[in-house]
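Re: Re: ligand-bound prediction request (bumping)

Still looking for help on this. To restate: I need the protein modeled with pyridoxal-5'-phosphate bound, output as structure tokens. Inputs repeated here so nobody has to scroll up.
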Amino acid sequence: MNFSEKILKVKPSATLEINALANSLKAKGFDVIGFGVGEPDFDTPDFIKKAGIRAIESGKTKYTPAGGIDELKEAIINKFKKDNNLEYNKSNIIVNCGGKHSFYNLMQVLLNKDDEVIIPSPYWVSYPAMVLLAGGTPVILDSSEENNFKITPDDVKKTITNKTKAIVINSPSNPTGSTYTKEELKALAETLVNYDILIISDDMYEALLYDNNKFYNIANINEELKKRTLVLNGVSKAYSMTGWRIGYMAGDENIIKKVDILQSHSTSNPTSISQWAALEALTGDQSVISDMLNIFEKRRNLIVGKLNEIPGVSCKSPGGAFYAFPNVSGVYNSKGWQSVVKKYKSDYNSTILTSYLLEEAKVAVVPGIEFGADSNVRLSFATSDANIINGVGKMKKAIEKLL
Ligand code: PLP
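Reply:
Sorry for the wait, this slipped through. Here it is.
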């Protein structure tokens, strides 16, 4: 079969290999502790579920406008105004089938062959894939761990070319949890304003910001940048609604119109029932977010403390999201490492370590190379305190065996 060049450029995720290994261990009866998942472990709040049930019972089960129902667009406009001090009209808003779909659609309507999209690394694994699937070129811009995995204006200047179409800013970040301060965004804005490129601000983890820090968006810095910024957000992480598949985006109405056309010929509307549930999420009792945030913040402190007790491992405290991204390169220098390399053949140390931890400790973590950082691994702390204590304890024992 001759497949399209686009699909052949996209590799299956290494996480799948780890998952397959984890599942085969589970099938053999082993108790595997998983730190892989990228979703809150809480149930969708009851009042949101009930809105979905009401939508079904009242017959809101038919096609809606491709870009979403007006009621939800109004709620999104209010959310942007209230939480982000950003003013939009309905023509600036579109509802998509999840945050991933917002980004995917955007790439499809923006990119021509060889157009470049700057993606700061470590990155969410789907960004480069979605750029490739649209026929564009992902340009990976490495950030340093010393700078808390954040890019600087100088980094940006060195990376922009005349083919650059857009740059991605993801704060708080998956996988590092790092968050940009207002000052850092201002500095980036002062540089970006000089180039004719778009800014894609992926705010999916906006609600999960720790230490009482306030969220800022680069679109807040000045009007010129706001015109060139697409703000992507959704209900998946904030309201524990990953399965409902509702994301949304705000920006220039000409771009939004094109996304609407694309959507009308591809998925059509996001699920009607989910849209009504998302409306309830955005307009209902917001204390569900702070309740979840408080629990995540305690877990963050717990997991970072425990990871830093492991020899060869150092973990910065993430400012947001629910991922710890420890540096494990010290383990690659341990006495027993070469025997591990021989056993678990891979080009990447983080994949080797992940396989070792799974087999030896029965703990599943994600190799950092998936996100462009082979010195790290990612652990989601969207899991119980008991799993964190037990799982990281097992990791420690397995790593100590290599010393
Ligand atoms: N953006 C980032 C950075 C993410 O990590 C994710 C999901 O993991 C998404 C967007 C998309 O979320 P969803 O498509 O589940 O709404």
